[in-house]
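Methods: example folding runs. The two proteins below were folded one after another, and each record is reproduced exactly as written to the output file, sequence line first and structure-token line second.
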Amino acid sequence: MSTDTVRVLLVDDHAVVRAGYKRYLELDTTLQVVGEADSGELAYGMLAQTPADVVVMDLSMPGQGGLESMRRIMQRYPEQRVLVFTMHENAALALQALRAGASGYLTKSMPPERMVDAIHQVMRGEKPISNDLVSAVAEAEKESPPHLQLAPREFEIFRLLANGQTVDDIGQRLHLGTKTVANYQSSIRQKLGVYTPIELHQYAKRHGLA
């Protein structure tokens, strides 16, 4: 492998997506996909044995989810570059990901060549964001609504609650105890000023998060 080669780890729970983007990325001879993972947990474990210059990671995956996985990766590897690549075209989620340490935020509606450009931008220390989200992210950061005050783990649980998952469901999905999730739920409701599941869902819907 050339010293100029950029090593990429693809993290997405859809094998077809990974295969398609691997083929496309490697048309650029300076990029090499050194590994693939179908969950954030697997990616976290792989990095110890398979170092990558850039991790390209989806946010919506089984298990603990992309935000928490990224937080854990950044905690263990503070210099790791993580480029989020997701279907979610939402400024609040983008801002949460960037605050958690993401090196950039792309959406899957973008042309595939944009990912190639973004990987090179990340390597240059830039922070690429989908064009259709740049102004919305800046506006969200300026307004700073209550849900942007949630910590990454709280924000992830908030989104799951808003989309109808129960405390037990979330505990199983994120490998957390029911009591722990219930405590998060209480904290989230207090910070958002909502007190019932319906109010929480309505809040999320108003902000495009449900």
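Second run, written to the same file directly after the first:
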Amino acid sequence: MRKICFLADSTEIAQKSLKRLQKLYGTTGCAKADVFVVLGGDGFMLQTLHKHIGKGIPFYGMNRGSVGFLMNKYLEEDLDERLNHADSITLHPLIMDAVAENGKQKKALAFNEVSLWRQSRQAADISISIDGIQKMPNLICDGVLISTPAGSTAYNFSVHGPILPMTSNVLALTPISPFRPRRWQGAIIPRHAEVSFDILQSKKRPVSAVADFTELRNVIKVTVKEDAETGLNLLFDPEYNLEDRVLNEQFLG
């Protein structure tokens, strides 16, 4: 039997499930666990991934939230057997390196996306470079984001970005309400590429940068690339295979 550390969101439904599962299977401290079983929704799963990054322990989520795209179906029976037969997916986060107008710097990881947002009533003016070569001199927009395959079904898809297969080895670069060039729909770029965003007219058109839960306001330059050295393993029941679910999202209304 695996040593399980149960981690639950603060919601009532997650806490009730936590007590039932601990009664059935016992619980182990996080330092000695073989697997984290996470009870909540996608937001709580992302928080948990950030908190326990670098420990080399796989994560098995059960949906006690709303969307639950990164979670399995909640079932109390045969948990040990399901863990033993689960498929593993490795997630590599993006690393954001942002510099603010006052000189403050912030590095942060993002498993879903790094996004840039206008802070005022005026649209942002952003220059985009790939591996040091300028590709977009002026993107006038509400914002722009770069998404991992795992995050491509989230906010990226809501702003009409492409859904990326988990094994595609690419990232999605997607504008948010572009005004000029009006018809630019973004780009698909290699996962090893380094993307740089330079904020033009930063005083007149201030921009904030967000990596999952970390925000830096009034940025002047943001660099994003995949952190290939960091990988977290998510476990999925065969019938909840993440690769299949990402594919199926493309056919939903």
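Comment on the second run: The chain has five helices and 16 strands.
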